[in-house]
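This part of the workshop introduces the protein records we will be handling. An example says more than a description, so a record of this kind follows:
>
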Amino acid sequence: MQGLGFGNQKIGIGLDSCVIPLRFDGLSLVQTTDFFYPLVDDPYVMGKIACANVLSDLYAMGVTECDNMLMLLGVSSKFTEKERDVIIPQMISGFKQAAIEAGTSINGGQTVLNPWCLIGGVATAVCQNSEFIMPNAAEPGDVLVLTKPLGTQVACNAHQWLEQRKDKWHKIKAIVSEEEVEKAYHDAMLSMARLNRTAAHLMHQFQCHGATDVTGFGILGHADNLAKQQLQEVSFVIHNLPCINKMAAITKACTNLFGLLQGTSAETSGGLLICLPREQAAKYCSEIKKVEGHHAWIIGVVEKGPKVARIIDKPRVIEVETTDEGCVQTVPAPAAGNPAVSTSIAFLITDQCCKPTP
């Protein structure tokens, strides 16, 4: 990748954020930018998702304090005056609220008239070296932890199909109910709008060896990108895929249209994929559950290899839902006959999944 310079704690183009040493000793600029088009109906929630998505690039570096944000906003030239006056203030309000939740503020940005509505921003932090974690120290024997479920793209598309009630909806309605699609869509919105700040904070406490956030390239694409940055000759092997409930069934019914089980389904404002020492991973999952009330999942292992990532032929799908109390958790397994993982740390205890692949 261009610009990588781990020896002097510098990252240019290639990973989640740039890390640029400043002219002041011991300080670095950590900065990122991102934008995309609306993917949910609620403009306020869309604003929160966009802000959370930008900040996740800082969080993937273990940076928990953002010093400033800029907002990038494209106002669609196709909006009527009434649509503009309703939608845009709501998007701005959602973005601002997420920034407040992150302990930062928006000071500047740019607004343009554009054929398509878009929203994003820039996140900037000035850090001491101890405040960020270089994403290059994975070791054989480490395990991979994921802090949010997969399947946001599937959930958003399924909801769109439900509203349109055309061929694609008729293809999946036999395996998923309208209520289940609405629930998955709601769960996806909550997940995408949730900050990865706590996950980033705990990376320091539990000796993280590197992380990335899971977004447009899917879990496999981002895992592969992270593997390529490691100092040691290691590869990542993914055994478990935590997915929003029923999304795996939908992707199967659509002949793997989204690539969810192949790890290529795009995510928006997804979780952090974190490399942790094996002895720390269960503690990390327990602590994030204690602090936030949400499950995290141990999904794979780090082993000696040619700096690539792969998913095993038959990964275990872990169904995930958001409770009425707003907690993200594994769907409880049926009483008998189903080996599904029912806790966030069960993977670690399963020796079969934690041993390096021959």
Residues 51 and 267 are 15 Å apart (CA to CA). The two ends are 29 Å apart (CA to CA). Confidence is low (pLDDT under 50) at residues 1-7, 336-358. The first strand starts at residue 18 and ends at 21.
